[in-house]
Amino acid sequence: PDIMVHFSAEEKAAITGLWGKVHVEEAGGEALGRLLVVYPWTQRFFDNFGNLSSASAIMGNPKVKAHGKKVLTSFGNAVKHMDDLKDTFAELSELHCDKLHVDPENFKLLGNMILIVLATHFSKEFTPQMQAAWQKLTTAVANALAHKY
Amino acid sequence: MVLSPADKTNVKSTWGKIGGHAGEYGGEALESRTFASFPTTKTYFPHFDLSHGSAQVKAHGKKVADALTNAVAHMDDLPGALSALSDLHAYKLRVDPVNFKLLSHCLLVTLACHHPAEFTPAVHASLDKFFSAVSTVLTSKYR
């Protein structure tokens, strides 16, 4: 779908405000870890990550943490360029399609894991309105990443 | 997809900790979160007052939560325990299957917000599986 996503001023403020408080390294590792725990078939992309044999092994795996940090740091770019996600993620889209061969469905799954990590970290502050704004962002990023397929 | 003994323990334990809040969480997941994040879900409630704090939506959230509480109590026989609801969703409500994932996700977010310490990755996985199993039963007679 080639529809430009529009974020209201309130949505942008909510997203940026929360992002400022996120520990990207920790949250990134957690989000990726949860993806691999909750949807074990996603481990297919990470054969060389070593021990993924249990939830605790996955969450403690240094490669998972490092890669999670990389992914969420890149996500930070989305927060800075909410009005221009397609261009911002054009190169990464090509990468994920042509080199990494990742089914875009996985972007949605990871997006939901990011949301759940935010929910556990921010609790009551992760209000329904906050969730809705972030839901919009993760969906838009997933679509941007799928754009070059 | 099968619920392991560990999954069942995780689900029962977490649901037990929710205690009397199940109805409240059901309302929050359904009304506040699902309708807000996924406006298309509102199309199934044209007959409801969907304004914030609506008594109808609160009641419906509680209904859903009570059904889930029943499911938790009968995890060894979900098809049996949910048979009537399965009929209802197949022949009367006909909610498109995609929506069960949306509500399940919002239930998980609600639980994660209210019980962050309990919501470990392993518990998260078990709950996701449980909601998925419930959704499968509820859509099992669709065609």
Structure description:
Chain B: It holds the Pfam family Globin. Chain B: This is Hemoglobin subunit alpha-1/2. The complex is a heterodimer of chains A (149) and B (143). Chain A is mainly alpha-helical and 149 residues long. Chain A has a single domain (9-146), classed as Globins (Globin-like, Orthogonal Bundle), CATH 1.10.490.10. In chain A, 68% of the residues lie in helices and 0% in strands. Chain A contains eight helices and no strands. Chain A has helices spanning 9-19, 24-38, 55-60, 62-80, 85-88, 90-99, 105-122, 128-146. In chain A, helix 2 crosses helix 4 and helix 2 crosses helix 7 (105-122). Chain A starts with 8 loop residues before the first helix and ends with a helix. The model of chain A has no long low-confidence stretch (mean pLDDT 95). Chain B is an all-alpha fold and 143 residues long. Chain B has one domain: Globin-like. Chain B is 69% helix and 0% strand. Chain B is built from seven helices and no strands. Chain B has helices at residues 5-18, 22-37, 55-73, 78-81, 83-93, 98-114, 121-138. Chain B starts with a helix and ends in a 5-residue tail after the last helix. Chain A binds chain B through residues 30, 33-34, 37-38, 55, 58-59, 112, 115-116, 119-124, 126-129, 131-132, 135-136, and chain B through 28, 32-33, 36-38, 105-106, 108-109, 112-114, 116, 119-122, 124-125, 128.
